[in-house]
Amino acid sequence: MRRMLAIAVCAGIVGLLAPLSTVGRTQQSTTTFKNIKVFDGLSDQQIDDAMMYMRASLGVQCEHCHDDKDWSLDTKEEKRTAREMIRMVRDLNRQLGDDLAVSCYTCHRGQSKPTTSVPLLTERPALAKTPVKPLPPSAGVASDAIVQRYLEASGGDAWSKLTTRVMKGRLVTSEPAVYPAEVSYKAPDKFHSRILVSGEPYRKGFDGTRGWNSDNRGSHDAQGGELERLRRQAAFALPVMLHTFYPALTVDGEAVIASEPAVVLSAPAKGGERDRLFFSTRSGLLLRIESATVSPLGMLPRRWDYEDYRRVNGVRLPFKFRETDADYTYLWEFTEVRHNLPLDETLFRR
Ligand code: HEC
Ligand code: HEC
């Protein structure tokens, strides 16, 4: 284990609930950072993304470089070295004529001290993306038909009879840790999740417009990529809403996910690479979404897996929902699902 467990647990929960721009500062992200020397001119969001990228590239926690009393201090040598490394990477990329030709991960590969030794075959790192084979036009696959089949396979008209949903179960993270969890939805796009961390509620919500989260450090509105992700997670019926998130899907090819053949559709995404959606060729259901944020230092991939579909009140729902990023996995496992319970509007508001 590279990480110390205690630190991993606290950093993991921060990663889970708070956008990084609020870490080390109090409340709303309206303040600007105090000690920016190499990332001047970048937005808070871009700096957050660069921090996530460095943490994952070196396989460390934020505190490896930062003094947790004040994140702007330069007390740690690692932080000062990191600045030199950022300058070095920029020089290299200038010579190579490509902003993202080389970055921290190119050398570090998840370690703070890079090695010149070649790894054994079994130790090579996992792929950031699922390999996709192109489909010949003669295969005659149309993206509209794939999306329509997904809607029908998931229940079609049965969705219109449902108004709310409450799902109970647990959240299992890669820390490893397990938290009791409850997620509530109201059609079409209201969402509330609550996990219990040592008996204390950590909550997230989306009220149709605003996304927010609230924990022992206080509460704040979600912004940027985090808001976009909450908006999609808040979809009461993703098969019905899919076109609002992805109005221009095209066929990318075919792939295999856990021995299940899949058709792959893709669409341009806000501020990132194309998102890719994987649909089972057997069941027609959505198996996976992949996307990537382009941080100032390099690509940060993210993946959502929809697993263990079961039929409830005429619709098919994934009883497991797994989110994977460069540092963590978050697996939501549900054991109980109930529809059409009355839910108060205030539940979804901050
Ligand atoms: C490899 C070292 C390294 C890691 C890991 C790292 N940072 Fe940083 N961080 C820096 C450097 C260097 C700067 C200063 C950038 C500059 O000078 O433009 C910085 C600046 C910051 C600032 C701005 C502070 C201010 O007010 O000036 C914040 C906030 C921050 N980091 C948060 C984080 C968080 C949260 C994480 C974990 C996700 C993290 N950092 C991981 C090196 C690191
Ligand atoms: C060309 C390869 C290369 C690239 C690219 C690179 N590093 Fe390094 N880095 C090294 C090497 C080699 C060392 C070890 C130096 C030593 O042992 O004296 C190192 C050491 C470090 C250290 C100090 C070791 C420690 O304990 O943390 C930090 C921090 C660091 N790098 C951060 C970064 C960051 C952040 C980036 C991306 C902006 C980056 N490096 C990109 C090669 C690289």
Could you explain the architecture of this structure?
It is a single chain. The protein has 350 residues and is α+β, with helices and mostly antiparallel strands. It folds into 2 domains: 32-108, Photosynthetic Reaction Center, subunit C, domain 2 (Orthogonal Bundle); 137-348, outer membrane lipoprotein receptor (LolB), chain A (Clam), CATH 2.50.20.10. It is 23% helix and 31% strand. A 13-stranded antiparallel sheet has the order 6-5-4-3-2-1-13-12-11-10-9-8-7. The structure holds heme C (2 copies). The site of one heme C has 18 residues, from helix 2, helix 3 and helix 4.
Structural topology:
Elements: H1 5-17, H2 44-58, H3 77-96, H4 104-108, H5 143-153, E1 164-173, E2 177-186, E3 190-197, E4 200-206, E5 211-215, E6 218-221, H6 224-233, H7 238-245, E7 250-257, E8 260-267, E9 275-280, E10 286-294, E11 299-312, E12 315-324, E13 329-339
Antiparallel strand pairs: 1-2, 1-13, 2-3, 3-4, 4-5, 5-6, 7-8, 8-9, 9-10, 10-11, 11-12, 12-13
